[in-house]
From TrEMBL:
Protein name: Nitroreductase
Lineage: Bacteria, Bacillati, Actinomycetota, Actinomycetes, Kitasatosporales
Gene3D superfamilies: Domain of unknown function DUF1918 (2.30.30.440), NADH Oxidase (3.40.109.10)
The DUF1918 domain, residue ranges: 3-60
Cross-referenced Pfam families: DUF1918 (PF08940)
Organism: Streptomyces iranensis
Length: 412
């Protein structure tokens, strides 16, 4: 069969003797509509683009979903078996799938996404919505892409739970960078390769800014979380020893800078909602989700009150040694941010099912000079994309989302 590729796929060239990857690059241009060679390839080792006629030692690695390496627990709603002959989903099902997608976390709950669904081709499209951009805290739009990646993961889980197999493509149109992904419903799912088991956590996962117990996380749960990230091509490591102290210090330093930075304060003011706020309560972080003020402990939970005192807000003692995990990727492209978002959500859903609560500790990632030192220099980690805090404690509360009809267009 002749080779076929899409823009964004990876071309991998293996050594004919050892089978090891000799060179890899991203396909950035096609010369034939059907995806056959040659390709314009940007090589990862030099960042140069060359025209490539792949030989027998080369193969394509798709950007989107790959066959899962192992079977996941089932938990399907199974309705696609009844839909199997149907040409499209009902409007109610489309809306409910998008509602599941929008239960995802996003920085400051800014919800920087829009969805389209085409009935004819059974395709969901996820678009970035720049109204949810944070110009001061996230000028490169990295966090925006991570939030959209998390929504994409939820959509994939919900589609699988609905009983459909789907093909996901990241950045499917090179001339439309705001089109972040397409999810095409191909056919009803078989029993294999099914992320539907994560579905019960889609609506029960919340960010919890409460103290967690200093209980160990069992090794089996830790390895399940490493596996969850790995399935989305992202590395996850638990931070320990001197590195834990270092990561905490970097986050505290970032948090201190945030408290005196007018731009960060402006982003925060736009997206926090105190009880007397008259703006629509369908976005942003509501006061009830701020969590208690930290009395003691070294947990750098972001202070959504911006250092201001809020009448009636309790104080609490947080952990001395929080469980922090870092998610990292070998490169730092938009596609890596989208993968990180999917990995973050996959890890959070898996953690929720394992009885863990979680919050984000991303402050140091938002300052250029503090992001690089976050990595563990003794590991192969390249670009840290996310810092999460995990533990056993209160679940956190549901926060509002914009209504689905505000973020979804259904095309015939
Ligand atoms: C990229 C990204 C960065 C975030 N950074 C923080 C953070 O530093 N501190 C925090 O408490 N929450 C952080 N959050 C969590 C959001 O505030 C949270 O997802 C949003 O308010 C919605 O609430 P929910 O997660 O409970 O649904 C972040 C989320 C994303 C996706």
């Amino acid at each position: 069969m002749s080779m076929r590729a899409h823009v964004g796929d990876q071309l991998i060239v293996e050594s004919p003797t050892t089978g090891a990857t000799e060179r890899d690059g991203e396909i950035v241009g096609l010369h034939h509509d059907d995806g056959t060679p040659p390709y314009d390839v940007r090589w990862s080792d030099s960042d140069r683009i060359t025209l490539v006629f792949p030989g027998p030692d080369a193969h394509i690695h798709p950007t989107g979903d790959e066959p899962e390496p192992q079977r996941e627990e089932t938990g399907r709603r199974g309705s696609a078996t009844t839909h199997s002959g149907a040409r499209s989903l009902s409007e109610a099902v489309v809306m409910s799938l998008v509602e599941d997608a929008t239960a995802a976390p996003s920085m400051h709950n800014a919800q920087p996404w829009r969805f389209e669904y085409s009935r004819r081709s059974r395709v969901f499209r996820l678009r970035a919505d720049l109204r949810g951009a944070l110009p001061h805290s996230d000028p490169e739009l990295r966090a925006l892409h991570i939030g959209c990646g998390a929504a994409l993961m939820n959509l994939r889980v919900a589609v699988a739970h609905e009983g459909w197999e789907a093909a996901t493509r990241l950045l499917p149109d090179p001339v439309d960078p705001m089109l972040l992904a397409s999810v095409t419903l191909t056919r009803p799912l078989g029993d294999e390769a099914d992320p539907a088991a994560l579905y019960p956590a889609v609506r029960t996962r919340h960010t919890s800014r409460y103290p967690f117990a200093e209980t160990e996380i069992p090794a089996s749960v830790r390895s399940a979380l490493v596996d969850a990230a790995h399935r989305e091509h992202v590395s996850l490591s638990f931070v320990s020893g001197w590195h834990l102290q270092y990561v905490v210090d970097l986050a505290l330093e970032a948090e201190a800078r945030n408290l005196t930075d007018p731009g960060v304060a402006a982003d925060l003011a736009r997206f926090t909602r105190t009880t007397d706020d008259t703006r629509p309560a369908t976005e942003g972080v509501p006061e009830y989700a701020f969590g208690p003020r930290r009395r003691i402990g070294k947990v750098p939970v972001r202070d959504f009150a911006g250092g201001k005192s809020i009448p009636g807000r309790p104080a609490a003692d947080f952990e001395t040694f929080p469980h922090l995990v870092l998610l990292s990727t070998s490169r730092d492209r938009i596609v890596d941010w989208l993968r990180t978002g999917q990995a973050v959500e996959r890890v959070l859903l898996r953690a929720t099912l394992a009885g863990l609560s979680a919050s984000f500790v991303t402050q140091a990632l938002e300052w250029h000079d503090l992001r690089w030192p976050l990595r563990d220099p003794t590991s192969a980690m390249a670009h840290v994309q996310m810092v999460l805090r995990l533990g056993y404690g209160p679940r956190g509360r549901q926060t509002p989302r914009r209504p689905v009809h505000d973020v979804l267009d259904i095309e015939p």
